[in-house]
């Protein structure tokens, strides 16, 4: 079934829904563990799951294998990510054909970052330059067979300093035939809500799912947000400071923050949430439990101090 149909159904039933994103592990043991986790997380009732695609097709076989198993063995509605740079069109054709053969009807169409070890992405001969090209290509070749998702950037895409031009490029890929949007992770809900308003004002009506990444550990969070220049509200930095050396306390704070962010978005009318699970179960499960979306199995451990979670914000 198409993700867009599932979203439409959930919205018409006025119920919140969620999806999980996984990446292909590097080792065989990691793959076995991932399948085990997917099977358990099936019980959390995701509307669909995503599997990422290594830039330049570096994980193509494994991404396809995981997608095929998730779709046909675990019965999880699966969306395969597909990038289009640093890769010939023939590789895209093979991926789309195999996805179709496996009964997968959902593709997240992306440009892709430079493959590991390379500084820039490239358009190879017979390949594409931007996500919009891939959206057009899939629509031309497959008509309505695939439901196509695209990436959105509430803070603007890091490579484009011109936010207005970036929004217009975003609109172009939606207009080329996208069915829904999943956003880049963010930690400032106001930025997300404001971006959604601007996007809607441009006439974009397809569903938008915010990408949620519960904080897992302090150094990883600092490194990742610095690299991607993600806006981190000061209250989060203040809350994390006293617990930065206590991994479990940071994880628990990450869950509380994710619950608070989703609650704020829900109050603003958001019904769907996309979780970057990092192939882990606990933080996502606890967030869903805390939101009352699934029955609780365990309590989040009380923190040794009272986090502000933005309560003192002006
Ligand atoms: P595009 O929409 O093509 O935009 C990229 C940049 O080009 C932007 O700065 C835009 O303003 C500019 N631009 C767009 N069109 C034009 C044009 N016609 N002329 C000039 N400039 C233009 N990466 C992976 O490798 N594998 C994954 O599985 C993966 N999954 C992701 C999932 C999500 C939800 C998100 C948000 C990102 C994901 N990424 C993944 C990262 C993504 O590949 C990068 O963010 C990449 O830099 C941009 O991809 P895009 O599809 O958004 O690009």
TrEMBL record:
UniProt enzyme class: oxidoreductase
Keyword Oxidoreductase: yes
Pathway: One-carbon metabolism; tetrahydrofolate interconversion
E.C. number: 1.5.1.20
Cofactor(s) required, per the database record: FAD
GO molecular function: methylenetetrahydrofolate reductase [NAD(P)H] activity
Domain of life: Eukaryota
Keyword Isomerase found: no
Keywords: FAD, Flavoprotein, Oxidoreductase
Protein family according to the UniProt entry: Belongs to the methylenetetrahydrofolate reductase family.
Designated name of the protein: Methylenetetrahydrofolate reductase (NAD(P)H) met13
From-to range in the entire protein, with total length: 1 to 314 of 592
């Amino acid at each position: 079934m198409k993700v867009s149909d599932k979203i439409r159904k959930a919205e018409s039933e006025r119920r919140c829904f969620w999806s999980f994103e996984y990446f292909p592990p590097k080792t065989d043991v990691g793959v076995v563990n991932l399948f085990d986790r997917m099977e358990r997380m099936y019980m959390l009732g995701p509307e669909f799951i995503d599997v990422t695609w290594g830039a330049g097709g570096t994980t193509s076989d494994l991404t396809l294998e995981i997608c095929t198993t998730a779709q046909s063995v675990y019965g999880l509605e699966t969306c395969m990510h597909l990038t289009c740079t640093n890769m010939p069109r023939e590789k895209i054709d093979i991926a789309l054909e195999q996805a179709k053969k496996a009964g997968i009807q959902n593709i997240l169409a992306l440009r892709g970052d430079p493959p590991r070890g390379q500084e820039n992405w490239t358009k190879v001969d017979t390949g594409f330059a931007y996500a919009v090209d891939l959206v057009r290509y899939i629509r031309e070749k497959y008509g309505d067979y695939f439901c196509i998702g695209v990436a959105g950037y509430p803070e603007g895409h890091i490579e484009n300093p011109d936010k207005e031009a970036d929004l217009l490029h975003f609109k172009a890929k939606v207009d080329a035939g996208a069915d829904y949007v999943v956003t880049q992770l963010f930690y400032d809900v106001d930025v997300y809500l404001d971006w959604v308003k601007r996007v809607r004002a441009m006439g974009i009506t397809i569903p938008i799912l915010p990408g949620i990444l519960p904080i897992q550990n302090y150094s990883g969070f600092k490194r990742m947000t610095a690299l991607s220049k993600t806006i981190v509200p000061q209250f989060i930095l203040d809350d994390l400071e006293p617990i930065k050396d206590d991994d479990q306390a940071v994880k628990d704070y990450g869950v509380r923050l994710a619950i608070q962010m989703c609650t704020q978005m829900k109050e603003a009318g958001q019904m769907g949430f996309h979780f970057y699970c990092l192939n882990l179960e606990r933080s996502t499960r606890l967030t869903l439990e805390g939101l009352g979306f699934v029955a609780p199995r365990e309590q989040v451990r009380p923190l040794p101090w009272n986090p502000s979670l933005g309560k003192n914000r002006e």
